[in-house]
From TrEMBL:
<keyword id="KW-0464">Manganese</keyword>
<protein>
    <recommendedName>
        <fullName>Probable cytosol aminopeptidase</fullName>
        <ecNumber>3.4.11.1</ecNumber>
        <ecNumber>3.4.11.10</ecNumber>
    </recommendedName>
</protein>
<feature type="binding site">
    <location>
        <position position="272"/>
    </location>
    <ligand>
        <name>Mn(2+) 2</name>
    </ligand>
</feature>
<feature type="active site">
    <location>
        <position position="353"/>
    </location>
</feature>
<feature type="binding site">
    <location>
        <position position="290"/>
    </location>
    <ligand>
        <name>Mn(2+) 2</name>
    </ligand>
</feature>
<feature type="binding site">
    <location>
        <position position="272"/>
    </location>
    <ligand>
        <name>Mn(2+) 1</name>
    </ligand>
</feature>
<dbReference type="InterPro" id="IPR023042">
    <property type="entry name" value="Peptidase_M17_leu_NH2_pept"/>
</dbReference>
<comment type="function">
    <text>Presumably involved in the processing and regular turnover of intracellular proteins. Catalyzes the removal of unsubstituted N-terminal amino acids from various peptides.</text>
</comment>
<keyword id="KW-0645">Protease</keyword>
<feature type="domain" description="Cytosol aminopeptidase">
    <location>
        <begin position="347"/>
        <end position="354"/>
    </location>
</feature>
<dbReference type="InterPro" id="IPR011356">
    <property type="entry name" value="Leucine_aapep/pepB"/>
</dbReference>
<keyword id="KW-0479">Metal-binding</keyword>
<feature type="binding site">
    <location>
        <position position="267"/>
    </location>
    <ligand>
        <name>Mn(2+) 2</name>
    </ligand>
</feature>
<dbReference type="InterPro" id="IPR043472">
    <property type="entry name" value="Macro_dom-like"/>
</dbReference>
<feature type="binding site">
    <location>
        <position position="349"/>
    </location>
    <ligand>
        <name>Mn(2+) 1</name>
    </ligand>
</feature>
<dbReference type="GO" id="GO:0070006">
    <property type="term" value="F:metalloaminopeptidase activity"/>
</dbReference>
<dbReference type="GO" id="GO:0005737">
    <property type="term" value="C:cytoplasm"/>
</dbReference>
Length: 508
């Protein structure tokens, strides 16, 4: 990951630099470009640049990028990049596009991207700088495990904003850096192939990254402890694999935190074959990403601890491989979860809810949770309903739904509230158990209704990230592969103090 520098004005540019120029809607150029202050770039006077820009036809549409010719290779390249109206989504797209182009140029010797954020419309403030730093780190993200040496990457992204000396802007840049690194970690976990990523490996990664942070403790339960604790769902799903399951519990408990204790539960299926109810070959290879919810909650906790947020939070990840073997759980098995509720297995491919049920019940009964949020690549139905950029949000209270919706908006992630429609509750009927695990359509909703009792009376929300957890192609700061979706929404919610009630109406 490149280092991020925060500067108040354009630095002197050298041969190894790439300069981005933000082009607004209708080809408007930032004021600094044509002001005398731009004299730090003698080889490219603003007038010339503006003329060259007109020639390339860049009209400022977000995500469009054109190369501008520079005399003397000082800087190496000037790239004009659309910033649209400078809204936060447009800004993210500008930054990610510039970084991606600069990473290509890094393969030919560029080492620094100089990234001015002020537009003709407004100077960048704290929100813009935070979004830009996140987009810079995430847009340039890359996961590779090849035998060849990696091509050279950018060493530095210099973010330029005239208000950069403002302490709020500097704090936002730092928050953006911590967030970007945490989400990149989540992406690494998701992108790691499942022959490396078994439950023990995933738990080990959590310990390695989190256990040394101040006020963080990480506990890992193995099969014996899971049996003693009654984790029937985790043991059933993990029972078919040669790599036994784990439960990761990472807690951040800063001194002076209030009484609220959100517990984030993330689905940690390290590979989902479907089990005995095996998946067809076509969709199966995507199932190495079936622990993306687990990665998201661990990343949110990582960032919360590094930012020293004044809120206690715990991440719980039931990790198991849903494999096919003689010891796999079967259709018609009855499984007893933490807390005693039972499930009749109708389809072993509905394994996510089996492990989440234990995680939610454990958080409520043994970890002192005051509010529960789970994140899971839970249903193909949600991907069909909302597509690949938007998560389904279910919540038992309007206040929690609203708070998470606001957090997602600030984070730049899309969520859409779905109904916990009780008219489908009867589909969960089982003759022999409290519920069956494959109640049918609408699949996303019946899965949420299955989970709900495990949260008891606590406020509970469920994010089904089956669509956005994984990307088929690059798009702004989303890079093909694991996206880390959910981590930033959870983090913003924690930054707001993990509110459960609607924000109080403003009085005058
Ligand atoms: N991990 C899958 C859901 C999924 C599918 C995520 C596609 C991302 C892309 C989950 O475990 C699953 O198999 N769900 C089943 C449930 C059904 C058997 C009730 C599904 O959605 O088909
Ligand atoms: Mn499945
Ligand atoms: Zn699954």
């Amino acid at each position: 990951m490149p280092r991020v520098d925060l500067l108040t004005s354009l630095p002197r540019l050298g041969e190894d630099d790439v300069l981005a120029v933000p082009v607004g809607t209708d080809a408007t150029l930032p004021p600094w470009l044509t002001s005398p202050a731009f004299g730090t770039l003698p080889a490219v006077p603003g007038r010339l640049l503006a003329g060259a820009l007109a020639d390339t036809g860049n009209t400022g549409r977000p995500g469009t990028v054109t190369n501008l010719p520079v005399a003397g290779r000082r800087p190496r390249s000037v790239v004009a990049v659309g910033i649209g109206d400078g809204t936060l989504p447009h800004l993210r797209s500008y930054v990610a596009t510039a970084v991606r182009r600069a990473q290509t140029l890094a393969e030919h010797g560029a080492t620094r991207l100089v990234l001015p954020l002020d537009t003709a419309l407004a100077p960048a403030g704290a929100d813009e700088v935070r979004a830009a730093v996140e987009a810079a780190l995430l847009g340039g993200y890359r996961f590779r495990e090849t035998s060849k040496p990696h091509p050279p990457r950018l060493a530095t992204v210099a973010v330029v904003a005239t208000d950069a000396a403002d302490p709020a802007v500097a704090a936002a840049a730092r928050a953006g850096e911590v967030t970007g690194h945490a989400v990149a970690w989540a992406r690494d976990l998701v992108n790691t192939p499942s022959n490396t990523k078994d439950p023990a490996w995933l738990a080990g990664q959590a310990v390695e990254r989190l256990a040394g942070l101040p006020h963080v403790t990480v506990t890992v339960l193995g099969p014996e402890e899971l049996a003693a604790g009654g984790f029937g769902g985790v043991l059933a799903v993990g029972g078919g694999s040669a790599s036994p399951p784990r439960l990761v519990i990472a807690s951040y408990a800063p001194p002076g935190a209030g009484a609220s204790h959100p517990v984030l539960v993330g689905k940690g299926i390290t590979f989902d074959t479907g089990g005995i109810s095996i998946k067809p070959n076509a969709g199966m290879r995507e199932m190495k990403t079936d622990m993306a919810g687990g990665a998201a909650v661990l990343a949110a906790l990582d960032a919360a601890a590094r930012l020293e947020l004044p809120v206690a939070v715990t991440a719980v990840v039931p990790a198991a491989e849903n494999a096919v073997s003689g010891s796999s759980y079967r259709p018609a098995d009855v499984v007893r979860h933490v807390g005693g509720r039972t499930t009749e297995v109708q389809n072993t491919d509905a394994e996510g809810r089996m492990v989440l049920a234990d995680g939610l019940a454990h958080a409520r009964l043994s970890l002192g949770a005051t509010v529960l949020v789970d994140v899971a690549t839970l249903t193909g139905a949600m991907k069909v309903a909302l597509g690949t950029r938007t998560a389904g949000l279910y919540a038992t209270t309007d206040g929690l739904a609203g708070a998470l919706g606001t957090a997602a908006l600030h984070a730049g992630e899309q969520v859409w509230r779905m109904p916990l429609a009780e008219e489908y509750a009867e589909l969960l009927h089982s003759d022999v158990a409290d519920a069956n695990n494959a109640p049918g359509n609408p699949g996303g909703t019946t899965a949420a209704i299955f989970l709900r009792p495990f949260a008891g009376d606590l406020p509970w929300a469920h994010l089904d990230v089956a669509g956005p957890a994984r990307a088929a192609s690059d798009d702004a700061e989303v890079v093909k592969g694991g996206t880390g979706f959910g981590a930033r929404t959870l983090l913003r919610w924690l930054e707001a103090g993990a509110p459960v009630d609607p924000a109080p109406a403003t009085t005058h």
